[in-house]
Design brief:
The chain has helices at 8-13, 64-79, 93-105, 125-129, 142-157, 216-225, 232-246, 254-257, 308-311, 316-321, 344-349, and strands at 20-25, 44-49, 52-60, 85-91, 113-119, 159-164, 166-184, 187-192, 203-208, 211-215, 258-264, 269-274, 292-296, 336-341, 357-363, 367-371, 381-386, 389-403, 411-416. It is α+β, with helices and mostly antiparallel strands and 418 residues long. One of its GO terms (biological process) is phospholipase C-activating G protein-coupled receptor signaling pathway.
Length: 418
């Protein structure tokens, strides 16, 4: 894994305060291990680690009063502190972007904080990509905070680097809409995504840190959302069962849903690849009839599968046209990798028998994914996911992907495990 390290001048300007940590936790994340921090909500504790005092402040991101207290306290500390402050986020992949988006809304200087993931979700690919693994051991607070102190030592030895964040804008046709799985008093149910006026929305805007996909993997995740549990291992079993079930259903294929993917800017438009139904004769055609199209920002997918791009196969015509393909991937190079999988079995077996993905493009943004248009007799229905958040989409129109406009150079600062 290659990543963009700080220059010497940036290192001098980015001194990290290793004696002060904020820990924002999501007690409802996949493994619910973050629930252990509820006893310290809105509290500050001081620990002695290797002879030095370390202060940690705990706040719940699910509790409005708690998280707002945390954000206000963080603003005060940033204004009176010349050093950057490390922010530990205990939760899943979705919790990471949730906190970052809230901090942007709160006008917290993102350039003055450094994100550290503490994996308490189901997939935890963000944490895995940074070397922090996909799970945490036991109770971190027992035995005089023994495990928490060990993690503090790891955090103090970690090194900073940049991490790309992307804006995703998904639009449907005028009669289209989105559905997602939400929990209510009746359990998990399908709900249409609404705008501020309570109407079905035609536009969905999200930020992406890990990956975006269209196809059967998102359909599996959508079904999984209906059956989530509070046990990480049971969740993985549930996900596998959903995959087996979907193997026997008729799933929308890429050729039925997507028309083309193009790179665009103010100077030019370039079609990177297309499906068989696109009329552009000069564009590269995706081979076969893939079940899933995946756009990767990190080297970890589907709860810990790594090196998918490196191990993937490249069609000869794609290799000839795209001579700048590199097997190296990075979460800080401003590039995204597009791959496809032909089947559910190919995705599932990638963990033990690598090489099932087809490499399609390695490119920067902005990007446009154009869906096939529906007509009166043909409703286009597909499934999408953004960092493990799943949606069913009806009569989709397009997806735009570009570097996050609300962040300096579209990047955040993160801490990698040494």
């Amino acid at each position: 894994m290659q990543y963009q390290q700080f220059s010497e001048s940036e290192q001098q300007q980015s001194t990290l305060n290793l004696g002060l940590f904020y820990l924002f936790y999501n007690s409802g994340s996949g493994s619910v291990k973050a629930n252990q921090f509820c006893v310290l909500d809105c509290a500050d504790i001081t620990l002695i680690v290797d002879g030095k005092e370390v202060q940690i402040s705990f706040f719940s991101i699910q509790n409005v009063a708690s998280r707002n207290q945390g954000y206000n306290k963080l603003k005060d500390d940033l204004s009176s502190n010349n050093k950057q402050i490390p922010i530990v986020i205990a939760g899943g992949d979705g919790s990471m972007m949730w906190v970052i988006e809230q901090m942007i809304q709160q006008k917290i200087d993102i350039n003055q904080i450094v994100i550290i993931p503490l994996p308490c979700g189901t997939g935890n690919d963000f944490s895995n990509a940074l070397g922090w693994d996909t799970d945490i051991p036991g109770n971190m607070l027992e035995n005089d905070y023994r495990i928490l102190k060990q993690f503090i030592r790891f955090w103090q030895k970690g090194h900073q680097c940049f991490f790309d964040i992307w804006d995703i804008t998904i639009q449907t046709q005028q009669d289209g809409y989105f559905q997602e799985i939400k929990k209510n008093e009746k359990g998990y149910t399908k709900q249409s995504v609404k705008d501020l006026d309570g109407m079905n929305t035609n536009i969905l805007e999200k930020k992406m840190s890990n990956y975006f996909s269209i196809g059967v993997d998102a359909r599996i995740g959508y079904g999984f959302d209906k059956n989530r549990t509070t046990n990480r291992h049971l969740n993985k079993i549930c996900y596998c069962l959903q995959g087996i079930q979907k193997m026997f259903l008729k799933n929308p294929r890429l050729n039925q849903v997507v028309e083309f993917v193009e790179h665009f800017n103010h100077k030019e438009q370039k079609t990177l690849f297309k499906t068989v139904n696109c009329q552009d004769k000069n564009a590269l055609t995706v081979p076969g009839n893939p079940a899933t199209l995946v756009c990767l920002n990190i080297n970890s997918y589907a709860a810990g599968i790594t090196d998918i791009w490196k191990n993937g196969k490249t069609p000869p015509e794609f290799l000839q046209r795209n001579k700048l393909y590199s097997e190296k991937t990075s979460f800080s190079d401003g590039l995204l990798e597009f791959i496809s999988f032909d089947s559910i079995a190919g995705i599932g077996s990638e963990r033990v028998l690598a090489g099932n993905a087809t490499r399609l493009a390695q490119t920067n943004g902005p990007l446009l994914i154009k869906f096939q248009e529906s007509n009166n007799n043909n409703i286009v229905n597909s499934y999408i996911q953004i960092d493990g958040q799943y949606f069913s989409i009806f009569n989709p129109l397009s997806v735009e992907i570009q570097p996050c406009r609300q962040l300096p150079q579209g990047k955040i600062r993160i801490l990698m495990k040494d």
